Automatic annotation (TrEMBL):
GO terms for cellular component: cytosol. It is found in: Cytoplasm. Pathway: Carbohydrate biosynthesis; gluconeogenesis; Carbohydrate degradation; glycolysis; D-glyceraldehyde 3-phosphate from glycerone phosphate: step 1/1. Its EC number is 5.3.1.1. The lineage of its organism: Bacteria, Bacillati, Actinomycetota, Actinomycetes, Micrococcales. Keywords: Cytoplasm, Gluconeogenesis, Glycolysis, Isomerase. GO terms for biological process: gluconeogenesis; glyceraldehyde-3-phosphate biosynthetic process; glycerol catabolic process; glycolytic process. This is Triosephosphate isomerase. Its main location: cytoplasm. It catalyses: D-glyceraldehyde 3-phosphate = dihydroxyacetone phosphate. Coiled coil: none annotated. It comes from Subtercola vilae. It comes from the Bacteria. GO terms for molecular function: triose-phosphate isomerase activity.
Length: 263
C-alpha cells in the first residue's frame, strides 16, 4: 500500500554557492549536527544534502557514518555513452549517492529542460536505485486549485513508466517563490501539498513518498505548515549550519506531533 514515510524530511541544496572547500566544511558541520541530534539519530527526522558535483564523493565519505543521505543536483537521462559533460545515475549510485534532484525550475528556465527531459531523468534515477527529488510547481501565482492541477500534470508526466515499489520525494516549489524574499503564503502551501499528497496516495506504484516544500523556505516555516507537509527543501537559508540546526529542531517537533506524542 502506498504510504508517506513517518519521518519529517529536511533537505538542503547548496546550488553553486559554495567552493569545493566550503562544501566539505559544510558537510562536516552537518555531520556534527546529525551526530548530536537525537531525532536524526532515531530516524524521526530524515536529512539529505545535495552539494556541488565535484564535492559529491568526499561529502559521501564525510557523512557515511551518519544517517544523512547525499544526492546530486542533476542526473543524465542515459546511463552511459557519448554524452560529454553529463553524469549518469550509475556513477552517482557507485559513489554512494542515494538521491538525484530533477525538474528544478532553474533547470527548466536556464537550460530549457522540458517535461519530457524531467520524465527521462526521473526514470534514470529510479532505474539506478536513486530516489528522485522531483521538483514541481506552478509558474505563476493563482488559485490553489489551479496550482494543484498544474502540479499533478507535471507529476503524471514525470512518473510515466515508473516501476512498482518506487520511492519518491516531491519538492513542491512554486516557480514564483524561488529566490523571493519570502516563501509562498502558508495557506497556499498547505492546500496545494494536501492536494498533492492525496494524488500520490492513489498511485499504487509508489512504495513510499513525501511531499516537502521549497521556495525561499527557512526557519519558522514548518511551524506554520504543520502536518500538511512532510518537510522542507532548503536553499540559501540553510547554508548557515546554525539555521539548518534550527530547522531540524522544528522538524523534530513536527515529527513528534505526527507520531501522536507531545513535541
Amino acid at each position: 500500500m502506498t504510504r508517506t514515510l513517518p519521518a519529517v524530511t529536511v533537505g538542503v541544496s547548496t546550488k553553486m554557492y559554495f567552493s569545493y572547500e566550503r562544501s566539505l566544511a559544510y558537510a562536516r558541520s552537518v555531520a556534527e549536527i546529525a551526530a548530536e541530534h537525537p531525532a536524526v539519530q532515531s530516524g524521526a527526522v530524515e536529512v539529505f544534502v545535495i552539494p556541488t558535483y565535484p564535492a559529491l564523493a568526499e561529502t559521501v565519505r564525510i557523512l557515511e557514518r551518519t544517517p544523512v543521505r547525499v544526492g546530486a543536483q542533476d542526473i543524465a537521462t542515459a546511463d552511459s555513452g557519448a554524452f560529454t559533460g553529463e553524469v549518469s545515475g550509475a556513477v552517482l549510485a557507485e559513489i554512494g549517492c542515494t538521491l538525484a534532484e530533477v525538474g528544478h525550475a532553474e533547470r527548466r528556465r536556464l537550460f530549457g529542460e522540458t517535461d519530457l527531459v524531467t520524465r527521462d531523468k526521473t526514470q534514470a534515477a529510479l532505474r539506478n536505485g536513486l530516489t528522485p527529488v522531483l521538483c514541481i510547481g506552478e509558474r505563476m501565482p493563482g488559485s490553489t486549485d489551479a496550482a494543484v492541477d498544474e502540479c499533478v500534470d507535471q507529476l503524471t508526466s514525470a512518473l510515466a513508466g515508473t516501476p512498482e515499489g518506487s520511492d519518491l520525494v516531491v519538492a513542491y516549489e512554486p516557480h514564483w517563490a524561488i529566490g523571493a524574499p519570502d516563501p509562498a503564503p502558508a495557506w497556499h502551501i498547505v492546500e496545494v501539498c494536501r492536494g498533492l499528497r492525496a494524488h500520490l496516495a492513489s498511485d499504487q506504484r509508489l512504495a513510499s513518498f513525501r511531499v516537502i516544500y521549497g521556495g525561499s523556505a527557512g526557519p519558522g516555516l514548518l511551524g506554520q505548515l504543520g502536518t500538511a507537509v512532510d518537510g522542507l527543501f532548503l536553499g540559501r537559508y540553510a547554508h548557515d549550519p546554525a539555521a539548518l540546526a534550527t530547522v531540524i529542531d522544528e522538524a523534530a517537533a513536527l515529527a513528534a506531533v505526527r507520531a501522536g506524542s507531545p513535541a
